[in-house]
Amino acid sequence: MAEEAKTIDRRTLLKMMGAAGASATVISACGAPSSSGGEARLTQTSGLTGSEFGDTVDISTAGPGGNKNWRPGDALKFLPAERIPTSGEAADQFAGLSKQQLLGFYRTMQSTRIWESTMKDLFLAGDDGLYGYFHSYAGEEAIASGVMGALRDDDYIASTHRGHGHLIAKGGDLNKMSAEIFFKASGYNKGYGGSMHITDMSKGILGMNGIVGASYYMAAGAGLRAKVRGTDQVSIAFFGDGASASPYYFSAVRSAVNENIPVIFVLENNMQYMGVPVARHSPAKHLTDYTKGLNLPHHVVDGNDVTAVYKAASQAVARARAGQGPSVIEGLTYRWYDHQGFSGVREGEDGAMRLPYRTEEEVRGWISRDPITRYRTWLLDKALASEAEIDNVVAEVRQAVDAAVAFARQGSDPAAEAGVTHTYAESDAVRTQFFNRKGLVT
Amino acid sequence: MAEQIRKSYGYAQLEAVAWEMRNDPDMVYYYEYQVPISALPTGEVLDLVQEFGTDRTSGSGWPIDEQWIVGATIGAATAGSKAIARLPSMAQFYTVEYVFNQAGKLRSMTGGQANMPFVLWIDGASRGRGAAGQHTDVGAEAIYANLPGIKVVCPSNSYDAKGLLHTAIRDPDPVVYMDYPGVRSGQQPDVPNEPYEIPLGQAAIRQEGTDLTIVAWAPATVDVVRALPEIAEAGISVEFIDPRSLKPLDVETLARSVQKTGRLLVVDHGHYTNGFGSHVIAEVAQLVPGARFSKIAFPDVPGPGSSVMMEWLRPDAPKIVDAAKQLVLT
Fold first, then answer.
1. B58: Cα separation from own chain's centroid
2. Which of A44, A80, A173, B112 could staple A302 via S-S, CB 3.0–4.6 A?
3. Which residues of chain A does B281 touch, with a Cβ-Cβ cutoff of 8 Å?
């Protein structure tokens, strides 16, 4: 592949792609506001030949990987444009949706943001005695919302430890989610799981998961089941940039392609695995490069643009439903808070500003590209919804979240003795923490 | 030594690693995100990355790929380097295959050719509230101890943690070093600055007594220490033994104690079935027929997130007191 990349406009690019018969698409242009970010413009490396899906046209040639010299603040180089494009294929496709659908995307994003923000305040205030892990999804909501918008209720998703947004977008119940954060018996997992393991099998949610990289096989296996049963359900594996290092990743994508499984691998690249920048542990610029030899479509999109995510997801879903196998989608985004919990957070302020592995400027820069604000502006610019309609969604969500907190508070703790149930389907585990008084029955 | 500086648990451990790395330029220390840097209260900083560079350490962190971290470290050890791989708690079983089929077997399979100066340092989890399921497991020592060719140590205080680390690094065989965070809440002895070894297979008698032998290691020792005063109030004289090294196990010290007391209570934070406590009882029972034996352990359930359930499930101090009374007084 040639070293130099040339800058071209979107229309030319699409034409070239059409001519080359490529099915990967440019989803959204990404502007680069910072002086150092010249390389993040819409560019395209040469070569649209090769195997059917071997080449991907990216939103930028420079992904965040492959930079061992990454310094705190470098995430600014990957800032998307201030505004979501109001024209182009993604915009046109999106504008064709019903108002209910358009506001639905806004609703799922706001539900996640407001619910998580409320939980954050409760954790920080301490009055409810909350404990356990909480991995905030703030800043990444467009990916869950865009992907889930392309799914049916009976499709499967396998989520991650950072999965509140996935659950909410897939129809998760805020009351039961809140009660689980409170470890109440009325919670989704009856107090066994907490934030990191919330699951709703009735909605095709195979669960959040505390093990990094656990989603690939889970989702691929669900896709296998759909194939065996002859349904046209599809399955989504969400994962982060950290999890792309798991050997499970390559293994699952390879066999999913080989077995033509209706599964889509959705990478949420927030550029930070815990406190380690992805740039230092991935030799590839885009993590999707890992699987490019496997002959499946790859979409690299602006992860803070719900229209772009939706477009990529709807293509991948259509393909999987039609029995044409898996795709990979990478959304470039940014995590507003620390890996877990709320270090570096000041009350009443969005984002964790005071963390050693990133700069305040970088966090503020990414917050200025808030996927929710950007989408609101886009809706208004395109006159697809009124301010009153949008504000009404926010009011409804706030009401639902307040009700969910009340529901959580009202719930009861699980019985201590429930600790030995649910390990096996039909019998309790033995209470071996106590001295065995029974002895042999003679 | 007259002057002891209070050093943190983590500093004591890194002190051992740093000393060994200084004395063996081939030695390597790889990890996931647990960057090896620690400071004394006096401000002196031990920074292994700065001192030994990013070839001999994982620098600011290696990818979330435990198979790689452990596999590559075993490779370095097979080729001749003293080598440590450090894993986070939730990843403690990803790598059993490579440890089982490579680290544990190569010396034997190669007729003694392969040396394996490999340490698998596992940051254990704890039976704490809120983490739930995949982040609450204790007891991996039992699974690793079952693998041929593997040795297992479970330090329960900073002095043992440093000494056992020196021993594990110098040992020519693979040693699994279980580093449970729960033990940090216990009483910490002073830790010398100089290197020292604690021999494998040497138990520590923490308290001498005549009525009942209690055996516990790693995090369970903290609960036993909490239980001891109340057991004493009940008029029971306890001999409390921490094996420290589980494989090899100091069966002799354990058996002699039970021969004296006639009763053995094992407290195990691992899951009940085939937990290491079962092995302790099996070994002692073969040498001391006629004694009374009991084991209390975490039930065979994944640790739930709710503190209400978790506290009930843990074999904690009140349950230890109760078991001691039942075993001795009934």
1. 23
2. A80
3. none
